[in-house]
Design a protein that fits this description.
With about 300 residues, the protein is of the alpha/beta class. It is built from twelve helices and 13 strands. The strands form three sheets. It has a seven-stranded mixed sheet. A four-stranded parallel sheet has the order 11-10-12-13, with helices on both faces. A two-stranded antiparallel ribbon has the order 6-9. It starts with a strand and ends with a helix.
Length: about 300
């Protein structure tokens, strides 16, 4: 079996996507495996206590480490010459995009695969599709939120699914589960996507796979509404993930709404003053004192990940 890919995982110093503080890379070249890991000094070098609690990396640990553009020069050719694999790839690829923009570096040509989306199609019925959940189901040892171990787990998930489904190529595996690679290109990007439609599904009637909830999750016992197209997920898939966190999905913005999740393209249009009817209503209600919060799609996936 001829297979070449590079699996990656970033950890960030704070909520900003351009604050990478660690990168793990696993290079898979026809059965030969090479692993690399970097601590990265973000600019500005500001660490949030919550992020430190997650990955254990502090400002003192990275103060003498290279900045992103130096690390990028080391990995750019590798990333451009292989399929990039990541779990919840929308997060890791957004770190690349946002940080390249920070350093005014042009987007490269990158084809990428999200193993979270692959697992959702190939392993139906799991409580959730976090990296540690899928890894545990497969018997993959993992110290979660260590960048190298997370990157290695993503690689192992891909290899295991290829073996389980008797796929002798990545193209064959993607065809079986109707998944399209995402791509970053010179003028933008489009997400790794699942060929599935949610027409006719009443989101308010979705039930959780399990009733064992983490009441510390931001969406637990909260009312959520979606607006705009999501990248690579149908609204029904995203709504199911909210329900699995113990949240409630509503069809429209009203007095009960706690969060309005805004598709990334619509969220970016906010800077141009362009809003959907749901966003306009949410803003009007917020100005009148109602506690409703708009959340970008990128932040939405990160909240689900935590």
């Amino acid at each position: 079996m001829s297979l070449n890919f590079i699996s990656i995982d970033f950890e960030t110093a704070n909520y900003r996507r351009n604050s990478a503080c660690s990168l793990g890379v696993v290079i898979y070249d026809n059965g030969n495996v090479e692993k690399k890991e970097w601590l990265i000094k973000p600019e500005p070098c500001e660490f949030d206590p919550f992020n430190i609690m997650i990955h254990g990396i502090t400002e003192d640990m990275v103060i003498n480490s290279p900045t992103f553009e130096i690390v990028w020069n080391e990995i750019k050719d590798l990333i451009e010459s292989s399929i990039v694999v990541a779990h919840n790839a929308s997060f890791d690829l957004s770190v690349i995009r946002y940080t390249l923009e920070q350093y005014k570096i042009d987007y490269p040509e990158i084809d990428y695969l999200c193993t979270m989306k692959l697992a959702q199609k190939a392993m139906p019925g799991l409580i959730n599709y976090k990296l540690n959940t899928v890894s545990s189901k497969m018997g993959i040892k993992l110290k979660h939120h260590n960048a190298l171990q997370d990157a290695n787990a993503s690689a192992e998930i891909l290899l295991n699914l290829m073996k389980q489904n008797r796929s002798d190529s990545l193209d064959d595996l993607l065809d079986k589960f109707e998944i399209s690679l995402g791509k970053i290109h010179k003028s933008g990007y489009y997400p790794c996507s699942i060929a599935k439609k949610s027409i006719g599904i009443d989101l308010t009637q979705l039930k959780p796979f399990s009733y064992e909830f983490d009441d510390n999750n931001i969406f637990f016992n909260k009312n959520i509404v979606f607006t705009g197209a999501l990248q690579g997920y149908t609204r029904a898939e995203a709504a199911q993930l909210v329900v699995d966190k113990g949240g409630v999905v509503l069809n429209g913005v009203n007095q009960k709404t706690d969060y309005l999740i805004v598709g990334e393209q619509d969220y970016l249009r906010l800077t141009d003053g362009k809003t959907s009817s749901k966003m306009k209503k949410a803003v009007e209600m917020s100005e009148k004192g109602h506690q409703i919060q708009l959340i970008s799609e990128i932040d939405f996936w990160e909240y689900l990940r935590s």
